[in-house]
Amino acid sequence: GWTLGGTLDQNGPVWEIRRQDGFGHLRKGLLRVIALTPGQGETVEALAQRTSALAEKLHRISALGGESRVLGYAGWDFLPQDGGWQLWLHTARLETLPEFCRRKFSRWEVLRLSPDPTLAAEQVGRFLAALSLPPKQIIALGVDICRSLECLHRAGCLVNRVSPSCICRHPSGLFFLSW
Question: Which of 28, 81, 109, 122 is spaced 20 to 30 Å from 1 by Cα?
């Protein structure tokens, strides 16, 4: 089975999970737990509708497949909790854009450019420009993210924010959008 690693500094509780496969390879993933509780004045029926709509989006995203440049889910489950739900999401563990930059550049350069690892969406362009990445790599990243957004839009999924921590780099060099 999977074992829990450390928590990651992301929006909400996220743990790195690990498992040794039968061939001696270490597989890594992420486990994100999201609490779905009634908002102020929200009825139980409204919460059920909101939860059902989220489940539908998860099904649509999973159906996109890896070619969409959208990071899909290896699995998920809704567990009842205190008048609401807990959503447990399991995804692949890919390097986020801030992690890629920390690995590629010195700690001083990354801190100077970005003291906050969860930059707002409007700062993504400035962040990339300040890194002095080759123009070809910045263009490739932009094209990959646009393809991700197009696929999500066709699947009927609204994206309300794109931040560096939502952009993941596959070992092949392609960039994916986690949603």
Answer: 81
Buried b (16+ CB within 10 A) or exposed e, 151-176: bbeebebeeeebbbbbbbbeeeebbb
pLDDT at 66: 59
The helix (run of H) or strand (run of E) holding residue 166 is none
Residue written as token pair 């993933």: 29
The segments of the chain whose pLDDT lies below 50 read: 108-111, 113, 115, 117-119, 121-122
Burial of 178 (0-12, 13-18, 19+ CB in 10 A): buried
> Whole-prediction pTM value?
0.65
CA 90 vs. chain centroid, Å, equals: 11
Distance CA(11)–CA(30), nearest Å, equals: 13
Tokens of 107: 């700690």
On average, the pLDDT of the chain sits at 77
